[in-house]
Amino acid sequence: MTPHYTLVSHGTVLGHTGAALPTEGLPVGAALWHLIPAQGFDVVEPIIAELTAPPALSLVEEVIPTPDVYLHPGWSEQQAQMDRLMKEAARVHQFRLVLERYEALALELRDGAGHRVAVSPMIVKQMVPAESVRAFAESVDPEEAQWIDTSEPCYLVMARLDAVGAATAA
């Protein structure tokens, strides 16, 4: 059975975790769930939508280099990256402002007893159809798939559980 957690921001319930999804390719210790939004989620949904919109994702992919590329570029590539970054400064600034609003949410996952099991979970609005997420959830966690509303946008939450949360999930 999938352990369930509550997503909270400053004491307001934003949603609950549903189907646990596979973690291959995620950082060690990270977990991934379908998010079942609660009424309080309406307040933060615009921030999530803005951070995960295609322009924001392309900004991250195209303008912000990976650590390896940034730390070990050839001189000509480094100059090209800096020129591109300067051209994109306004977009980077807007992204930073949205990211600050997201961080100010002070998101936490709490277990059924109300204990904090993770801080700073990441919420992602899925770009794939909710029907696809539901079909996938049916194959990995059939009991939880029923909570995926295919008429609404689909959200996932990823977090690294602390030691207490990891022990509960095991």
Largest sheet: 7 strands, antiparallel
Overall residue-averaged pLDDT value: 81
Which band does the percent of strand residues land in?
Answer: 15-25%
Please compute the radius of gyration using only Cα atoms: 18 Å
Terminal Cα separation, in Å? 10 Å
What coarse outline follows from CA principal-axis ratios? globular
Structural class: alpha+beta
> Number of helix segments?
8
Number of strands: 7
> Into which percent range does the helicity of residues fall?
40-55%
Poorly predicted runs: none
Tell me the series of helices and strands, N- to C-terminal.
Answer: EEEHHHHHEEEHHEH
Q: Strands across the major sheet, in which order?
A: 5-4-1-2-3-7-6
What does it look like?
There is one protein chain. This protein has 170 residues and is an alpha+beta fold. It is 44% helix and 24% strand. The protein has eight helices and seven strands; from the N terminus they run βββαααααβββααβα. The chain has a seven-stranded antiparallel beta sheet. α1 (41-51) packs antiparallel against α5 (89-103). It is globular and about 55 Å long. The termini are close together. The mean pLDDT is 81.
Note the topology:
Elements lengths: L5 E4 L2 E10 L8 E8 L3 H11 L2 H9 L4 H5 L3 H13 L1 H15 L3 E4 L5 E4 L2 E4 L4 H11 L1 H4 L9 E6 L2 H7 L1
Antiparallel strand pairs: 1-2, 1-4, 2-3, 3-7, 4-5, 6-7
Helix pairs in contact: 1-5
List keywords for this structure.
globular, 7-stranded antiparallel sheet, 170 residues, 44% helix, alpha+beta
Summarize the structure.
This protein has helices at 41-51, 54-62, 67-71, 75-87, 89-103, 130-140, 142-145, 163-169, and strands at 6-9, 12-21, 30-37, 107-110, 116-119, 122-125, 155-160. It has 170 residues and is an alpha+beta fold.
